[in-house]
Every structure is written in C-alpha cells, then in structure tokens.
Amino acid sequence: MAREVSESCMDSLLTEIVSSYCNRFYANKPELAARRIEAIGYQVGHQLTERYTIERPRFSDHLEAIKFICKDFWFELFKKQIDNLKTNHRDNKFRWLSRMSGDSSVEISSAAQDSSTMSDNKFAQATSMHLYFPCGIIRGALSTLGIPCAVSADISNHPACNILCVFHELMRRLVCDSDKGVAVSLHEFKWTKRYS
Amino acid sequence: MAPAVPRSGDAIFANVERVNAELFTLTYGAIVRQLLTDLEEVEEVNKQLDQMGYNIGIRLIDEFLAKSNVTRCVDFRETAEVIAKVGFKMFLGVTASVTNWDTEGTCCSLILEDNPLVDFVELPDTCQGLYYCNILSGVVRGALEMVSMKTEVTWVRDMLRGDDAFELQVKLLKQIPEEYPYKDDE
Q1: What CDD domains does this protein map onto (chain B) (predicted)?
Q2: Which residues, numbered 8 to 67 in chain B, qualify as contacts with chain A under a Cβ-Cβ cut-off of 8 Å?
Q3: Which residues from A are below 8 Å from B21, CB to CB?
C-alpha cells in the first residue's frame, strides 16, 4: 500500500505556494508568478512520469503515451478519471480536449473579503492561478514521454474545467487511428480547492 | 450532553481524504527547488518556507480542532503529546515522539523518524545551511499561535544533514490569554 498523506496537506501546500508567488514574490507580476507555478508543476509531472514508467516497456506510439497520461497517470494523481476526451481536427492541428467537472463545493474564503463580494474576475484569476500547477504536471508528463506540447486550462464554464493540450508535432498515427477514437470512461472529477 | 471523545490520530487519518504521498513529496521538492532558483539565498528560502508553514498552520489548526475533538489542553505537556500523536498523524500519516523536557515543562523536542517530506531527497552540496523541512516548523508555530501559545520552533537534528532523526525543539514563550472583544466595564 503506497504511503499516503491527507489531502489537506496537498491542498494547503498548493494554496500557499500560489499565494506566495502571487502576493509576495511576484506581486503585480501575475505572468511571472504563473510561469513559476507552472514550472513547479512541470517538475512534478516530469519526475512522476519517470517513476511510473520505470517498470513499463516504452510506449509504442504517441497515442499509447497519451492514453497512459489520461487514464493511469491521471488516476494515480487525482484518484479520479477524466470525464471526456476528444480529439479535434482542425487545420492539421490535433487537439485533445479533456473535460473535468469541478466539484460544486469549491469554496472561496478570504479573511479580508466576503466571498459574496469577490468579483467573478477575481475568482477566475484565483482559480486559474491554481490550475497552472496541474497544467504544468501534464506538460511535464507528456514532455517526458517525448510529446512536447502546450497545456492551458479554461474555466469559463466553471465548475467545469477544460484542459487544452496542443501538440506541436503532427501525429500521423493519430490520423489513422482516429476512427477508433479514444474511449475514456466517464467519471466525475473532483477538484476541491480552498482559496484564501 | 456528554463531551465528544477525543479521536486517535489513526482513526482520523483513516477517515480523511488522502492522496498519494509521492505527489506531495515531489510537489514539496519542486517548490523548494523553485524557491532556491528564485530567491537564490539559502537563508531567504529558509525564511520563506517558515513563513509559508506559518500561513498553513494558522488555517490547518481549524481542521485539526474540528476533526480531533481535542478539548483544551491542560498544559503544554499535553499539547506537545497531542501534536505528536494526533496532529502529525492526521496530516502526514506519521507519528512523532516527545522527549527532552526541561524542568519547567515549557520546552521539549518532537522527534520524527519517518518524514514523508524527505522521501528520496538528498541535498546537494550547494544547499549548505538549508533547512529543507522548515515548512514544518512554521506549521507548528502557526497552529500553536492560534490556540494562544507563542512559541519558538527550531531544528536540532536534521536527517538530510546527516543526523539520525528529525528533531524539532518547541519552546513555549508565552501563553497569550484569550482576549474578549468587549471589556467588562463597558
């Protein structure tokens, strides 16, 4: 049985690092703060992937690698599965959209602010800062598997969260296999966050 | 109504949402690495880790009090035992032991032989002077401050520096009496 810690350890750590970078180290420089948070995630994704793949044979192609990330890796990380995985063919770019439904109990509590007065904008900002971390994890994981990409998150449909992975390389194999598609079982993904 | 029975660390830990410790360990490691890159000075990183820990501790205490049913501790001795057996267990999944009490009962050491923060971690030579687990000292200090105890928390032993255990010295400086918002004579 793998060692465990409470989820609140992970949540507190993440909340605090986002807060430190946004309010202390790079106050008024959200771009820089975001990049640092993403870099931390990237490091985690990279190391986790290396560890998880040590005992496995190399992936035969990119599709297998992506499936691993979206199923086994994601599940190990978040104990849930991705809701929906789609490929999007448009102008020779292949896009994967994974959609996770956020937990409706996402709370924003702030000592200084009443949550009801926090504007939608600020909430979006706070949420998106946190999301740089899992985006970094995914980018780190995929890069380690030899699939360079850019990963971003879109929370305009909160509590749903769309993670967008754009792959730089053209994956010809995907064109051939796209008829089969990638079936990922639908389970609800919960990401409970406390912001303060 | 009978008072709620305090719950054991094991019982609480079994009932909270848990995550893979490896994710936590790697995340913490990545954070320390990034801080070293961005802040450059080891002393500054130590300071920031402690500050971050403090910020976490002042909030984590709420979860601790809510889940443990611990009533007000009679004295600092009891406080230290509760931190070691319940606090560490319900969050980090490991227990600590309490030793090295001074005669007044205001200073002791928390000993951690098993520490998830440092799994697979080795410090390079370039990190001389780094207290890698300094976030823990901040957490303890912050949490205790929220229950009216002002403390000084310092590392005595650090396994990443070659010692055989992690030893955190907790010294009670001042017990701040509860302040009531309204004066009696108003």
Answers
A1: TRAPPC3_bet3
A2: 13, 16-24, 26-31, 33-34, 38-39, 48, 51-52, 55-56, 59-60, 63
A3: 2-5
- What does the alpha-carbon distance between residue B138 and residue B151 come to, in Å, rounded to a whole number? 10
- The reply to whether B12 falls in a domain is no
Tell me which residue range forms the domain holding B55: 41-175
CATH code for the domain of B50? 3.30.1380.20
**In A, which residues are within 8 Å of B90 by CB distance?**
6
Residue A158 lies in a domain: yes
Sign of CA dihedral A29, A30, A33, A34: negative
Domain count within chain A: 1
Please indicate, yes or no, if residue A28 is contained in any of the structural domains: yes
- Please give the residue range of the domain that contains residue A66: 7-83+119-174
A-B Cβ pairs (cutoff 8 Å, strict): 99
Contact predicate B86/B68, CB 8 Å: yes
Q: What is the full per-residue pLDDT of chain B (186 aa) written as tens digits?
A: 555 677 889 999 999 988 889 999 999 999 999 999 999 999 999 999 999 999 999 999 999 999 998 888 878 999 999 999 999 999 999 999 999 999 999 999 999 999 999 998 999 888 989 999 999 999 999 999 999 999 999 999 999 999 999 999 999 999 887 666 665 554
Residue A104 has pLDDT above 60, yes or no: no
Distance from CA of B145 to the nearest CA of A (A): 17
For residues A166 and A118, the model is more confident at A166
